[in-house]
Each structure stands twice: as structure tokens, then as C-alpha cells.
Write a structure and sequence with these properties.
This protein is α/β, with parallel strands linked by helices. Helices cover about 25% and strands about 20% of the residues. The strands form five sheets. A five-stranded parallel β-sheet has the order 3-2-1-7-17, covered by helices on one side. Strand 9, helix 6 and strand 10 form a beta-alpha-beta unit. It is globular. The structure holds flavin-adenine dinucleotide (FAD). Flavin-adenine dinucleotide binds next to helix 1, helix 2, strand 4 and helix 10.
């Protein structure tokens, strides 16, 4: 067992928010160690490297991380440019993780598999808060143990996509048909092109993660005859999926929704509404995707299915810790009313920090994408503010932990009603690089909910 050092902070996940947590910890003289499951930091972002983001560079960079990059003479990108995931990796995450002083604090190919408190199981209380955390992770050599005084779980949700089944369970037969199903945002026009060219491809979902692949499939159909995109929508009305258009404060996102709306209206893709998938089976004629009863419900026949129904957090490795989560969203309870997609049409979220993100387990915090649980509206900038506050809390600077330092751009979608079930399950995914031309500027103006007491951010994906 590796011994803990005073003020040591273990950070699970080397995504942009986990790295930012480590940068803030270094700034405060703490001893961070980032455990990243992938072979390099930013492994989740790497999976969507072909996607152009809705946030320009000025909203994608953490302040403490920038300070570390400046030490090595960072050539900062143009603030108003909208990077792809790949650009975010190459021009920010990789430099931070592999060239800045942070590099000595990151262990890659290190997947956390369990956490407890040294000498304490979940039930034992007396003296619990002063026992260090015991973190087990798997690397090439096997299982390794590490002790730390505090833990920040910034492990994201990317590796745990929601299934196709409309009830949140796998559709019957979904597991058996895995080789014809992709989850998330495949690179339809790039590395995954051969898989989809000339195929009948259904895309299930309503958020921008669905819109991106659908727009690309329409483009692929222009290039490769026989490619047939089919949009499977759980809702009865596609209009809601088009987003806020010109009212969208994230202009690139509004532009994308408008482009997609035109394609749908022009009949460039087939559309099935009120389509709640229940069964999937492989047949000689292709993949049969059924909605309703197995015998006599509706069905479509395709070659491939892309499922973009959002993501969910995985807390299995934290089973021995005392956690409190909102029963619906699986996020820290204090956050739920701020981000509940059943309630918010604008996704307006006040900046928040250690207080909202703390758990009954003292010293354990959930941050980043994972802190939003199943809600789809997370913004990187919000995550940077979260970890600034958490690290201040760990360092004992309560005043800084309570303070709100974030000035968030207005990024709401003033499209009226709360999100429907599809949009609630969707994610922030934007269009594949080639299919989207970001609009140059954000629109001015407020969001449609009453002004909050503090600066507010809106999610990127409603
Ligand atoms: C397609 C897409 C587009 C987006 N566009 C925007 C945008 O334009 N603007 C914006 O603000 N936000 C955007 N987001 C939302 C969000 O900001 C990003 O997902 C961001 O990457 C979240 O950062 P994170 O560090 O919380 O999580 P992640 O980037 O998901 O990083 C989590 C890391 O944890 C690692 N990990 C997972 N499990 C373990 C484990 N058990 N042990 C160790 N490591 C583990 C993963 O390998 C990963 O590297 C987008 C999201 C997606 C999916």
C-alpha cells in the first residue's frame, strides 16, 4: 500500500475537469494524484474528437490549468474559435497532462475499481472522517492501492451510455445484437465511414448527439448511394428536437438545429415518431428494431443502429462509501433542482461548488460531467468552477469555497416548454466536424427563466 501524504487528493479521471482539479490543488500546495483509466489523459474526449464543440476556446479553458500552461510558454488558441474535441485534446488537454508540471501527478492506464476508508467498512462510524481513503486501481501490473486524504470523482459518464430500451433497460435482444449497435457519436464521415456507407442506419435519440450523426448520414447518402438514415424519436413531435434556433444563446448549437430542421422538412431522412424501442433482433433481412409488443407492434428493418439516448453515472466502485444521490437524476441532491430536465427548458444553472457537491462521506466529492448524473446539460466551465471551490474546501479555505468566481456566458435555449423525454436523455454532442459551421458570435440577451441571484449558466444540450 502506497502511503498517503498530508493533504493528498486522489482525482478519479483525467478529463478536462479532473485535470483542472489537479491544477487547482497544485496551486494551493496540495498533493494531487490523477488516476486515468485510458492510456492518455482525455480518453473520453478522444472518443468524440471529430465533434466540433458549441463552446469557443474562451469557455473551454480552466484558469489554474492555463497558469500551468503559461509556465511552459503556451500558445493559446484564438478565444472565439470553436474547437473540435480533437483540437481540445491536442492544444490543451495533452499539453497540460504531458508537458506542464501536472505531468508528474498523473497515472494513466489506471482504472479505479474500488474505494473505501482505511480500516473502515461502510457501516463503521466512529473516527471515520479522519481515516484516509483507500483507493484501488488496476494498471498493467494488476491491482494497486493508494491512500489519500480526499477524493474527487471526475470520472465522467461517457463509458456508461443509456440503452436503447425506452424504459431505461436494455431492449430485449439488445445485448445479443451488440455488433450492429453503436452508442454515443460514431465518426460517420471519418473513421467509421466504411461501417455506415451504403447501409440502412437508424439513429435513436433527440439531442444534438443524435442530430450530428443524422446530418452526417444525410451527407454520406449524397456520396454513397444506398445509405439510408432513419431517425427514431421517442417523442411525438420532432420540432422540440430542433432546439431554440436563433433564440439559442449557444449560436453554433442553434445553427445546427436549424440545419437539421431543414433536412427533416425536406424529407432527406426517414422519421418515425413516438417510437419507444422494446425489442431488437438480428434476422436474415437485417436488424429488426421493434416498438411495442414483440408480435404485433411497429418495427423498422435496418443494418445498423446508433443509440444516442444519453449517459448515466456509474457508482459501483464507490459502493463502500456513504453516498447520497437524487433518486431520479443520480446526482448530488442539492444539484437536482437546478438541472432537472423535467423542469428546465433553459437549463439555467447557478454556479455551485463544494457545498452542493459534498457527500455524507467527508472528503469525497463528485465533480464534472458525472456530477450532473443523468442530466444532459453539463458545461465544462461549470466543472472548472466546481473543482476550484472543492479544492478550496479541501484546503480549508471556506470563504473561497463559498465564493462564486464564475462568470458564465448566457447560453440558454428559450424554446418554451420543459424538455421531453428524448431531449432529457440527450447529451451535448454537437455535429461532426464536417457537418457544422459554427456561427461567429453568441446572441445577447437573457434566458427565459427569472434572473437568478448569481450569474447563471445554461446547459449546452437542451
Ligand atoms: C460530444 C460532446 C460534446 C460536448 N461539447 C461540449 C461543449 O461544447 N461545451 C462544453 O462546455 N461541454 C461540452 N460537453 C460536455 C462536457 O463538458 C464534456 O463531456 C467534458 O469532457 C466533461 O469533462 P469531465 O472531465 O467531467 O469528464 P470526461 O471528459 O468524460 O473525463 C472523464 C475521464 O475519466 C476517466 N475514467 C472513467 N472511469 C474511470 C475510472 N474508473 N478510473 C479512472 N479513470 C476513469 C475517463 O477515461 C475520462 O478520461 C460535450 C460532451 C460531449 C460528449
Amino acid at each position: 500500500m502506497e502511503k498517503s501524504s498530508a493533504n493528498s487528493v486522489a482525482i478519479i479521471g483525467g478529463g478536462p475537469v479532473g485535470l483542472a482539479a489537479a491544477a487547482h490543488a497544485l496551486e494551493r500546495g496540495l498533493k494531487p494524484i490523477v488516476l486515468e483509466a485510458g492510456p492518455r489523459a482525455g480518453d473520453a474526449v478522444r472518443q468524440w474528437s471529430h465533434v466540433r464543440m458549441f463552446s469557443p476556446w474562451e469557455d473551454d479553458v480552466d484558469r489554474a490549468s492555463k497558469a500551468l500552461l503559461d509556465e511552459i510558454g503556451w500558445n493559446a488558441p484564438e478565444p472565439s474559435h470553436y474547437p473540435t474535441g480533437g483540437e481540445l485534446l491536442a492544444q490543451y488537454i495533452a499539453l497540460l497532462a504531458e508537458r506542464s508540471p501536472l505531468m508528474e501527478h498523473i497515472r494513466t492506464s489506471s482504472r479505479v475499481v474500488a474505494i473505501s476508508r482505511s480500516g473502515f467498512d461502510k457501516v463503521k462510524t466512529l473516527g471515520r472522517e479522519s481515516a484516509p481513503f483507500a483507493i484501488r486501481y488496476q494498471n498493467g501490473a494488476g491491482i494497486v492501492s493508494l491512500e489519500a486524504d480526499a477524493v474527487i470523482d471526475a470520472s465522467g459518464t461517457w463509458q456508461h451510455p443509456n440503452p436503447a430500451g425506452a424504459n431505461g433497460l436494455d431492449a430485449i435482444g439488445e445485448r445479443e445484437a451488440q455488433d450492429a449497435i453503436a452508442y454515443g457519436m460514431p465518426d460517420v464521415l471519418g473513421r467509421d465511414r466504411a461501417r455506415y456507407a451504403g447501409m440502412r442506419v437508424a439513429v435513436l435519440g433527440a439531442g444534438h448527439s443524435a442530430i450530428g450523426p443524422l446530418i452526417d448520414l444525410v451527407r454520406l447518402a449524397e456520396l454513397v448511394p444506398g445509405t439510408q438514415p432513419i431517425w427514431l424519436l421517442r417523442a411525438d413531435n420532432p420540432e422540440k428536437a430542433f432546439g431554440g434556433g436563433a433564440n439559442d444563446k449557444l449560436a453554433a448549437r442553434g445553427e445546427l438545429g436549424a440545419t437539421f430542421a431543414r433536412l427533416v422538412k425536406d424529407g432527406r431522412l426517414a422519421l418515425e415518431t413516438s417510437y419507444r424501442v422494446t425489442h431488437i433482433s438480428k434476422t436474415d433481412a437485417g436488424l429488426r428494431i421493434g416498438a411495442g409488443s414483440a408480435c404485433c407492434g411497429r418495427h423498422v428493418m435496418v443494418d445498423e443502429l446508433i443509440v444516442t439516448t444519453g449517459f448515466r453515472p456509474d457508482f459501483s466502485f464507490a459502493r463502500e462509501l456513504r453516498l447520497s444521490l437524487d433518486p431520479a437524476l443520480e446526482c448530488p441532491p442539492a444539484l437536482a433542482p437546478l438541472i432537472d430536465p423535467n423542469v428546465h427548458s433553459c437549463g439555467t444553472v447557478r454556479p455551485h461548488g463544494a457545498r452542493e457537491l459534498a457527500q455524507p462521506e467527508p472528503g469525497f466529492y463528485i465533480a464534472g460531467m458525472k456530477s450532473y448524473g443523468r442530466a444532459p446539460t453539463f458545461l465544462m466551465l461549470t466543472g472548472y468552477e466546481q473543482v476550484r471551490s472543492i479544492i478550496a474546501d479541501i484546503a480549508g479555505d471556506r470563504e473561497a469555497a463559498e465564493r462564486v468566481e464564475l462568470v458564465l456566458p448566457e447560453t440558454g435555449v428559450c424554446s418554451g416548454s420543459p424538455l421531453d423525454e428524448d431531449a432529457a436523455a440527450s447529451c451535448c454532442g454537437s455535429a461532426a466536424e464536417s457537418s457544422q459551421k459554427p456561427a461567429p458570435a453568441k446572441l445577447p440577451g437573457g434566458c427565459c427563466t427569472p434572473a437568478p441571484a448569481q450569474p447563471a449558466a445554461a446547459g449546452c444540450c437542451s
